[in-house]
Protein 1
Amino acid sequence: MEFIRTIFDLFLHLDTYLDEVIRNYGVWTYGLLFVVIFMETGFVVTPFLPGDSLLFAAGTFAAIGSFKILLLYPLLFAAAILGDTLNYSIGHKIGPRVFEQDFRFLKREHLEKTQRFFEKHGGKTIVLARFVPIVRTFAPFVAGVGIMNYGRFITYNVIGGFLWTTLFIFGATSSATSPSCVKTLSLSLSPSSSSPSCQWSSNTGATAKKQKPAPPPK
């Protein structure tokens, strides 16, 4: 039971533990990042997983050499696209009865919130929802229920996934290489210093602090 609780906590707060995970698991961290982003976008029951904050954290560590950006970026871009595609397929499989019956694993208020989002923004919801926690997870599911055909969905899916991963990952790399951030990072790398490194935040309000550099995955 304790092991399961530890794993759940790791997934739930991966953005916070990322430095430690890189040091302990090396190259396997890439796979863990892929799984969390895929699950956050791909399963309607896991909207609580980190999304924005995890992309930003990964970009920050890529900027200081803990990740190879040419591997990290396409990997997480693919996770975002595949996750939404799976979620769409699940919604298509369940169909309109999701709005007529009570499903224990679905929160009706989230479904109704996403439906209102669709009514207001139309197909652009798949793009805009990438930047709105909760709605991001439910939008492809609701689209699959019958609001949008697959051809139109996949177009918006690719555009939204591209914008989401690009803005957060490369926004983080730009922030982490700014003069003020580099100075802070340098101070935090000193063994005798207790000064924290650059901090990141997301729309979900998650924050994390890096105390010492993580070696790049081998």
Protein 2
Amino acid sequence: MCRNNESTADTRLTILHEHYCDTFKHVREYWRLRNRLMAYSIVVLTLMFLQITDPDKAAQTIQDVAKLKLGIGITVDPRFIGTLLWIVLAVLVVPYFQYAILIDRQYKYLHHLENKFKDFMGEKVITREGTAYLTGRPCFQHVVKHLYITIFPALLLLAICIQWVTAVKPMSSWTNIYFLIDTLIALIVIVAIILYMLWMHFKK
């Protein structure tokens, strides 16, 4: 009977350990996706600001990329390019925040699993992502953390407001489809930023 209980406990511990490792692999993949989305978002914002300062050059750059990647030569309205960039930005930024929140929640789940190991083993043996990670964190890690949860979202919010005021507002008209689409997307992204920052800074 004791052997059966020990065998059951060992099996449960093995399953728990495999689940812990599998969860951490998912977190690492979420890291890569979040960082990639952040980099792409910065590229899109750069193109948007380039369009403000030099619309013709921005249009030519996008046309050159289309020709290189798609093998076709196109000539497009700069206003269409502006709206397209707004759409691409939203497609990148919203998933970025989703992955960032998912990473935060997964870390809490990893801490929960580490506590489960403690219940099995009587002491905290596996603490890589919990106690060991949070104890004695260097200042650099705190800075990097705030880069993701404060600095980047705040700069993104500022950039979107500047972009809307300088590039979208001048063509304000309820009959202008570009103005309506750009404004709607800007509002969606702004709401996403605010909700993300509220979650990261005021979550329980």
Protein 3
Amino acid sequence: MRMRVRQLREEKIAAQAKDLLSDYAQSRPSTACPPIPVVHILRSQFHLDPAYEDLSRIHRDVGAVAAVWCGRRQLSIDLSRHSYLDAERESHSRLIIAHVLGHLSLHGEHFSADPDQLPLFGDVPQAPCFICMRSDIKHPLETQAEAFALALLMPEPMLRDAWTECVGHVEPRVCDAAEWKGICRIASSRVDDSALETPAEELIRKLAGDFEVSIQSMAGRLKQLRLFVRAHRPEPALSTTRV
């Protein structure tokens, strides 16, 4: 995916995710509490079924994470990405599905209008309509789809309600330097959740389990919504020594 794409603010992307949930909930009012049923949304709103495949056979550099096959009506998730535990596999699969839902919701017109791309829902039995590549992770198409995925899997009102239920109030947690460093570490890389020890880290694990997302995704989303904030550093005292 190397096409130009319009800039979208986070608020606009979150609104699109909310619209998708609202459309789905009109006939299935089951999105009032976590986890968000992304597989059902994929099937009901876009008529695609998820499946695991070895995508290295369609892209020789083994860089494909997911691909949509229009003729098969199928979302293929790269099998080689799932050598870890079942719980991690499930949360990662849900993130990929939500990510692809972001492409379908935000970028559908690009695939149908760009002459270098196959029609998004054309009758194409042999080739995928599009492929998500690891190498494109910083491309605007991918960053927008990822932002959509986080907003869809962890809707702000739902996550704030879950936060309030866990901590007993709506206020953010003010973190000291050590705790903030730990949260940033979790948000930026895969971490063994057995190593989570602080109250903030335990809270991340609890909410990640409720929403069926990775602890990395949950930590990033809580930071984004400023439910975790860093304590202000004290100003250095002014010297009163006279020369």
Protein 4
Amino acid sequence: MNLPPLKLLPLSILVVTLLLLAGPSLGQSGDRGLYLTAKLGSTDVEADIEDIFDQVIDGDEDSTTFEVGYKLNRFFGVQAGYHDLGDFASVSTCPECEILTVPLRAETTAYSLSVVPQTRVFWRLSVFGKIGMAFLDTDLRTDLGAQSEPIDSFSDEEVIYGAGARFRIFSNLSVLAEWEQIGSDIETVSIGATLQF
């Protein structure tokens, strides 16, 4: 996908600013490092695609997310993620054409880049937030059994934000629960594990 550079400019400025502010703390032992996260969740989508075909995507599906991040200090990190949001039921009608409703399936994936503020609450429990941009790809196909075929695909960019809690089990392994929102149409609740290096 070709991403317009101007749309990435505000996020790039934010990331660079946080890196500069975090500079004095980067040398503190244990306050920085690479981490990997894997999550399983449930994603709810309610989207209305406004074109000549009134396409409505609505449903709940299992989803998976993989993230790689870098903890800048004990208060901030940055991360990139891949989100497989599921395969959702959809319908399409053409009011102007006066045709019957056609059942569809919509498969959506996304890549994200986020800033992650975080702080420890007590003992091994910490809380974190997330704010960034998500870049989505959706493929639409007819849902007619053996006659199913692709009919459309489109890309979009949305703000991604969320919050969660993480509990450290070992020095480099923790479990987490997270709520996440992409734009106004996609909401995910997930659990997962993080391995820090």
